[in-house]
Design brief:
six-stranded mixed beta sheet; 6 strands; alpha/beta
Length: about 270
């Protein structure tokens, strides 16, 4: 088994890229490639091979090469995590960034870690996921009427992207929002970082932004208008991190209530 990131097009389940997929190596190329992507499939392929942030590239690949002892016999994805789920979702779920030994290992956001266990159990109870757990790419899990993305697509050191890294990644999220806006009726933001990171992409994707910008809070709601298109309800939700779930800051019942509200918004005409 080769330690380190998986090469595009070498058989990883669900890999959207091939050896011929262009690689963005700078913020300017991220903007260029994201703006030129013609389809969601092309966009996710481009996202999955991006190398525009040197610090994040070095970290995600180091983690994939060294690996955690409990996963030492497993291959690591070690690349950016593309958006995943329904291609025409009514609900979009936005997280912070992949976990070093979760999404960075499995190639799918909120997959293979305790946060994902907590989140997918709630999604399954809410009818938004086919199974109550998400263990690995190719495990048969699928999202139902929902799509999941990260504000920053690479695992960051100490789970803390820099403002420049957030801004470099922004065009990927903007392009994805534009492509799903016609079907979108609700956006669930997992945590304050995702809440703050979403405003600029929302504006670039054509949504009218409220002034002043509402502060993040659990169960906070903002009605987002988009001229010529449907409105979407933005809902804040505490991040299902182990710290939050272990301390009871966020519970299964709290997540259930957020996703029930999102489903109610998604049912609007």
């Amino acid at each position: 088994m080769v330690a380190g990131p998986v090469a595009p097009g070498t058989g990883w389940p669900g890999d959207p890229a091939t050896a011929a997929t262009p690689v963005a190596a700078s913020p300017a190329q991220v903007r260029e490639f994201a703006g030129a992507a013609a389809t969601l499939a092309e966009l996710t392929a481009l996202q999955s091979v991006c190398r525009a942030c040197p610090r994040l590239v070095a970290w995600r690949e180091k983690v994939a090469a060294v690996r955690r002892r409990s996963f030492s016999g497993e291959p690591y994805w070690g690349r950016p995590i593309p958006g995943w789920g329904d291609a025409a979702p009514s609900i979009l779920i936005v997280g912070l960034a992949p976990a070093a030994h979760g999404g960075n290992r499995t190639g799918r956001i909120f997959t293979g870690d305790r946060s994902g266990d907590f989140l997918f159990a709630a999604l399954h109870r809410s009818g938004l996921a086919a199974a109550p757990d998400s263990e690995s790419a190719g495990d048969g899990q699928r999202l139902i009427g929902a799509r999941m993305v990260a504000a920053v697509r690479c695992a960051p050191p100490e789970n803390r992207p820099t403002p420049d890294e957030r801004d470099t990644c922004e065009p990927w999220l903007t392009a994805e929002l534009r492509m799903v806006a016609a079907s979108l009726r609700a956006i669930v933001c997992l945590g304050g970082f995702a809440w703050q990171a979403l405003w600029q992409p929302l504006g670039h994707a054509g949504y009218e932004l409220p002034r002043p910008r509402p502060a993040f809070a659990h169960a906070a709601e903002v009605e987002l208008r988009r001229p010529g298109g449907p409105a979407a309800l933005l809902i804040g939700c505490y991040h299902p991190s182990q710290q939050n779930t272990f301390t009871g800051r966020v519970t299964g019942e709290m997540l259930d209530a957020v996703f029930a509200r999102a489903r109610a918004a998604a049912a609007r005409a």
